[in-house]
């Protein structure tokens, strides 16, 4: 794919905001175009994971995504979000984020609206990636935990998995 983690998360707000004026079908097309993976890349990934079980796949996925943090203990990925850690547990890749004090000062309704948009973005982004679809076929899932007091308290959790992709027409 070639995107750094920071670049990946910087472009997300634009797609989320665009989603407010686009239909789900148009949004799916925009995500598919933006996150295009070549047939060669997909074939290479399929070969790479062919001998892995889902737990091994989770470990490799977590290691690869953590490597995108370039050795930083935490990475700012927007005005209100830091990624703190990425780890594997069983068949899950777990992403740990801390929310900024500014985000936490938003109204409850604004926070809930953000959560809905974040879940939609996560679903559309992950489900648009052919490599993620291949990993999900093996049972891989993602858990995204958002903390108001990292690592003591999780404020909310978002998920990405095969069932959510199917529920959303992917």
Describe this structure in words.
The chain has helices at residues 5-19, 24-34, 39-49, 54-67, 101-104, 108-128, 130-137, 162-167, and strands spanning 75-78, 81-89, 92-99, 141-149, 153-160. The protein has 170 residues and is an alpha+beta fold. The chain has a single domain, classed as 2-Layer Sandwich (GMP Synthetase, Chain A, domain 3). A hairpin with a 2-residue loop joins strand 1 and strand 2. Residues 1-11 and 13-19 have low confidence and may be disordered.
Draw up the topology in text.
Elements: H1 5-19, H2 24-34, H3 39-49, H4 54-67, E1 75-78, E2 81-89, E3 92-99, H5 101-104, H6 108-128, H7 130-137, E4 141-149, E5 153-160, H8 162-167
Parallel strand pairs: 3-4
Antiparallel strand pairs: 1-2, 2-3, 4-5
Helix pairs in contact: 3-7
Organism: Morganella psychrotolerans
Signal peptide: 1-25
Keywords: Signal
Structural class: alpha+beta
The CATH topology assignment is: GMP Synthetase, Chain A, domain 3
Strand order of the largest sheet: 1-2-3-4-5
- DSSP summary, beta strand count: 5
The main sheet comes to:
5 strands, mixed
What best-fitting shape do the alpha-carbon axes yield?
Answer: globular
CATH architecture descriptor text: 2-Layer Sandwich
Reading the helices and strands in chain order gives HHHHEEEHHHEEH
> Are there runs of 5+ residues with pLDDT below 50, and where?
1-11, 13-19
Q: What Rg do the Cα atoms give?
A: 16 Å
Strand content: 15-25%
Average pLDDT taken over every residue: 90
Distance between the termini: 20 Å
Number of helical segments?
8
CATH class: Alpha Beta
Q: Into how many domains do the coordinates divide?
A: 1
Share in helix: 40-55%
Protein name: Lipoprotein
Keywords: Signal
Organism: Morganella psychrotolerans
Signal peptide: 1-25
């Amino acid at each position: 794919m070639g995107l750094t983690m920071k670049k990946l998360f910087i472009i997300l707000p634009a797609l989320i905001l665009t989603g407010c004026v686009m239909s789900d079908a148009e949004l799916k097309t925009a995500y598919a175009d933006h996150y295009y993976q070549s047939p060669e890349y997909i074939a290479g990934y399929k070969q790479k994971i062919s001998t892995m079980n889902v737990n091994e796949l989770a470990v490799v996925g977590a290691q690869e995504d953590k490597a995108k943090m370039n050795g930083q203990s935490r990475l700012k990925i927007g005005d209100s979000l830091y990624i703190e850690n990425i780890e594997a547990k069983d068949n899950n890749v777990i992403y740990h984020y801390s929310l900024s004090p500014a985000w936490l000062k938003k109204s409850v309704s604004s926070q809930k609206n953000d959560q809905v948009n974040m879940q939609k973005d996560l679903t559309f982004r992950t489900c648009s990636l052919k490599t993620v679809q291949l990993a999900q076929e093996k049972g891989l899932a993602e858990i995204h935990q958002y903390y108001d007091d990292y690592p003591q308290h999780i404020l909310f959790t978002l998920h990405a998995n095969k069932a959510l992709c199917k529920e959303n027409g992917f």
